[in-house]
C-alpha cells in the first residue's frame, strides 16, 4: 500500500529521510478535529487578511487549503507540485538536521496530527494547523521558497553537540505531554524543568543551536516590512490565533532582523516577548549567507575539525584537493593553530565531490582513518601542486621507498604503491605498503596494519555534519524515544463526536440523524463544558433565521463565558465571525 502521494520530489528523497515519513490516515481525523481546523482557519483567514504578508492569502488559494476540511496530503502534493514543492507527513518533531534536509529537497514536513480542542489557540507540538496552514501557503512566494530551500541546504550541514540531541528529545517529549489530554501536572513540571536546566547549561552554542535560532526568528516567528507596522510571515504566528493577535500589540518588542538573532534563544512553550522584523525576503538570504560564512562548512581549519570531534557524530572534512573524509572524528594533532594530522575511529569513507571513491568504502576503512594535513617540511610547494617532474624529484613515485616529513613533525615512511588523482589531475591519495607514520616519537600507523592510504591536502577547507556521500553509511537508524499520544476514546467522547458529525452533515446538506434543536439539547445536557459545537449551531441557526432557538443557544454561550472565562474570547471571536462577517465560508 502506498503511504504517500508520489511526486518527483518525493521519489528522489534519500532513504534516510524516507524513514521519518508516516502515512496520513485521514480516517483518524474526528468530527471535533475537523471543527477545530475549521474554527482556526476561519479566524485566521478573517484576521490574517489584515495583518499577514500578502503572499499568505495568495498562497492559501495556490496550495488548495480549504477552511472547511483538514487538508489531505494527497491533494496537497498534487497542488504543491505546481509550485515546485512536495509535502510529507511525520510524527511530531523530527531531528533538526533531518527537518532541514527535507527543506533542501523542497519538501515540506507536516506533522499530520491536529491539536486538541483544549489547545485550539496554541500548542507546543507541531501539528497540521501549524505546518499546513502556517508553512504551506507562504512558500507559494518564490523568493521566500528559495530562502527556505537554501536554509535547509545550509542548515543540514550545521554541526550539532551531544547536548543538542538531548534538548531535541526533551522538547519532543514536552510537546507530546503538553498536547496529550490528562497528563499529570507533575509529569509536565518535571520535563519542563529538564528543558529549562538544559537551556541554562548548553555551554557554548553549537552551529545547529545557532541556526535553529535563526530558523525560529524567521521561518517560525518572523515579521516583515516596516518596523512600526510589520506584517506576519512566520508559520508559528500564522497558525496561532492567539499569538498572531498578541504579536501585533506594543507588548511585543519589534527588533530589526540581523545576525544577532542567532544568539537569541527561545522558549517553545511560551509566547515570544520580542520578534524580529526583516525589511523584505531578500534580507533573510543576506543574513543567512552572513551566518553561513561563520560555519565550519566554509571556514574549515582547526576549529572545524574540533567542532566535529566535540559533536561525537558522523561528519565530513574536505581537504584543499577536494578529497572528503567522512566518519566520526576523534582526534586532531595541531601545531601553530593549524591541524597537522586528523583521525577518525570506526567506519570511514573517502569521497570526491560527494561521490564515494572506488575501493574506499566503510568496509575497507572499517577501523578508522588517519592522515597528515599540510605541506612537507622545508618545501614551499605542496604535494597537490607538484608537477609529475616535481613528484619524481622528491621520490614521490610508484615503487619508491620514501620518508615524507610534514610540518608539525609528522613523518610517513614506506614504499609507494600507487596514487589516485582527481579529474583535474591533482593527486588526492597516495597508498603505501610497509608504512610507519609517527608524530615525533608517537606511533600513529605501523606496517602490520596493512596498506596506508594518505589523503593529500595542504589544508582543511570545510567541515560539516553528515557524510559526503549519503550512500556510504547506513543512516536508517532513527528510533524516536517518544511517540505522539492519541486522544482517549470513551462513550462520552464518542457521543460528542457524533453530535459534531451531525451538525457537519446538516451544514453539508447530508441527511442528519437528529435535528439542530435535538443536537443542541444533547450537547447542553450531556456536554455542558463544550463551546465549539454551540458556535457551529449558532452559525446554522443564523443562516436559517431561526431566531427563537438562536437566542437560547446565545444565552447558553453567554453562561459558558461566565463559567469558563478562559474560553470567553474564543466564543466572542467565533460569534464575531458569524454576525459581523456573514460572508465567510
From TrEMBL:
CDD domains: arom_aa_hydroxylase
UniProt record similarity statement: Belongs to the biopterin-dependent aromatic amino acid hydroxylase family.
Matching Pfam families: Biopterin_H
PROSITE patterns with a match to the protein in the record: BH4_AAA_HYDROXYL_2 (PS51410)
Keywords of this entry: Iron, Metal-binding, Monooxygenase, Oxidoreductase
Ranges of residues in domain Biopterin-dependent aromatic amino acid hydroxylase family profile: 1-343
SUPFAM superfamilies, sorted: Aromatic aminoacid monoxygenases, catalytic and oligomerization domains
Lineage per the UniProt record: Bacteria, Pseudomonadati, Bacteroidota, Flavobacteriia, Flavobacteriales
Protein name as annotated: Phenylalanine 4-monooxygenase
Domain of life: Bacteria
Coiled coil: none
Residues bound to Fe cation: 130, 135, 220
InterPro entries reported for this sequence: ArAA_hydroxylase, ArAA_hydroxylase_sf, Aro-AA_hydroxylase_C_sf, Aromatic-AA_hydroxylase_C
GO molecular-function term, one example from the UniProt record: iron ion binding
Gene3D superfamilies per UniProt: 1.20.58.690, Aromatic amino acid hydroxylase
